[in-house]
Write a structure and sequence with these properties.
Layout lengths: L1 H18 L9 H23 L8 H9 L42 H11 L15 H8 L7 E5 L9 H13 L4 E5 L6 H12 L3 E5 L3 H5 L5 H9 L9 H17 L1 E4 L3 E3 L9 E7 L6 E11 L4 H13 L10 H11 L8 E3 L1 H4 L17 H17 L2 E3 L2 H4 L9 H8 L3 H9 L4
Parallel strand pairs: 1-2, 1-4, 2-3, 6-8
Antiparallel strand pairs: 4-7, 5-9, 6-7
Helix pairs in contact: 1-2, 2-7, 10-11, 11-12
Length: 437
């Protein structure tokens, strides 16, 4: 809000200078005010469009730095991602005001105490109740993915809108660079808001089809194996566990949305290099055995499935039957690995398991190298070789945001080069800043 006020003040001062010109001495006050109003609306709209991808709380200096860092030849980029925060009631809150996830139960409590804690929290949790926004969900999906959508993409954002930063916006930007005719729906109570619209406005203004909607969890799991799980959570017979509930809800929602509608699901910590038109009923291996060349771990950060696919049904059933909210990964990559390990060769399953290079060319343990600026000729050559490899064999590169969200993306690094090459909005901004020849 401070940024908007600053520019409002600047436009007001500019207007005062204009109205003091002699030409205005003979113009009526009414006409002058009308002209000023039109001028201000147009001016602010331009500013909103240019600045809307930045959170409200960012300072003017940070915006200027973001727009000029590269042009001034500095070695550090501000493409960083702040720690994810979970809001109650889908409200937009300042990420600096609260650094503790409010949906993590108190430590050192019994199962009964944790369930009691969750029941006390339940009335505040937007995703567990229906409201005017969530009840419109199905109609919004059908209306959005019309015949003009050759491919439908889904992402999930259960954190506050203010924590949706440059890193996350780069994922959206790269998606529309690779798939300009695609349609992206972001399932998010916080982005389904005025501030969310401001964040997405640069993409909308560029003609891309993107929409944030509040998901209706009850509708998504209705008539699926996970419907009973939701009932148990609400009536207090299910332990929510001691890790972030939003993490497990994200795992559930991605399975349910693909089961209901089909399409492509992607986490928001990808850089997308190619469109997904040629992929059907596919999921990526995170790792493989170097000797027998068989996968050892599957990851659900990127999934492409037809609606009603039997594997998605099995995923939802496994989620409901084996849910454990206290084990990181148990309801996510370990879940899809367990199920696929059982049914991979069973009849009736149309499934393609993609090699790690497709989505996970770098493991989370050594991805930090992709964020570093090359310091020697050998390192520079490694960057160039890596870019060639990624462009030829990788569909989208997973950034492992849980590990790298505080990393600085240094200028000249692999990630900085990819973000600069695979974007639409950033290139438009660069063109606007470059003086005409």
């Amino acid at each position: 809000m401070a940024v908007r006020n600053l520019f409002r003040m600047a436009s007001y001062q500019l207007f005062l200078r204009i109205v003091k010109l002699p030409i205005f001495s003979t113009i009526s006050l009414f006409f002058t005010i009308s002209l000023a109003a039109v001028f201000f609306i147009i001016y602010e709209n331009i500013l909103t469009s240019n600045l809307s991808m930045y959170p409200e709380h960012i300072t003017t200096n940070e915006i200027i730095t973001a727009l000029t860092t590269k042009s001034e030849g500095q070695s550090r980029s501000i493409f960083s991602s702040k720690p994810l925060q979970i809001t109650t009631e889908g409200k937009v809150e300042g990420v600096d005001s609260e650094n503790v996830d409010p949906l993590i139960p108190p430590s050192n409590v019994t199962r009964e105490e944790r369930i009691a804690w969750f029941q006390k929290k339940l009335p505040e949790l937007e995703l567990f109740k229906s409201n005017n926004l969530s009840s419109q969900f199905h109609d919004q999906v059908l209306g959005f993915f019309d015949r003009d959508c050759p491919i439908r993409y889904f992402m999930i954002w259960l954190s506050p809108a203010q924590s949706f930063g440059r890193r996350e916006f780069s994922a959206l930007d790269s998606l529309f660079k690779a798939s300009p005719k695609g349609c992206l729906m972001i399932l998010s109570p916080s982005l389904d808001s005025r501030q969310g619209y401001r964040i997405l406005k640069p993409l909308i203004d560029s003609g891309f089809k993107v929409l944030a909607v509040t998901p209706d969890l009850h509708f998504l799991v209705k008539n699926t194996p996970a419907e009973g799980w939701l009932d148990e959570m609400k009536n207090g017979s299910k332990d929510p566990g001691n890790i972030s509930l939003s993490y497990n809800l994200s795992n559930l929602i991605r399975l349910a949305i693909l089961y209901k509608y089909g399409g492509v699901y992607l986490d928001v910590d990808f850089i997308i290099l190619k469109d997904f038109m040629g992929l059907r009923n596919a999921i990526g291996a995170q790792s493989i055995d170097p000797i027998i060349r068989k996968w050892t771990r599957i990851n659900g950060a990127a999934m492409i499935f037809n609606d009603g696919h039997p594997l998605l049904h099995d995923f939802l059933q496994e989620f409901a039957m084996t849910f454990d909210g206290s084990k990181w990964g148990h309801n996510g990559p370990y879940l899809v690995s367990r199920v696929i390990g059982r049914v991979e060769n069973a009849p009736g399953y149309s499934l393609r398991i993609l090699p790690p290079k497709t989505f996970y060319p770098m493991s989370w343990t050594n991805i930090d190298r992709l964020f570093k600026k090359p310091q020697t000729e050998a390192e520079l050559q490694w960057v160039e070789d890596m870019l060639v490899t990624l462009k030829s064999s990788t569909q989208a590169i997973h950034l492992w945001n849980h590990r790298t969200r505080d990393f600085v993306i240094e200028e000249g690094s692999v990630i900085e080069r990819l973000i600069s090459a695979y974007c639409v909005i950033c290139q438009q901004r660069n063109n606007q800043q470059t003086p005409p020849i």
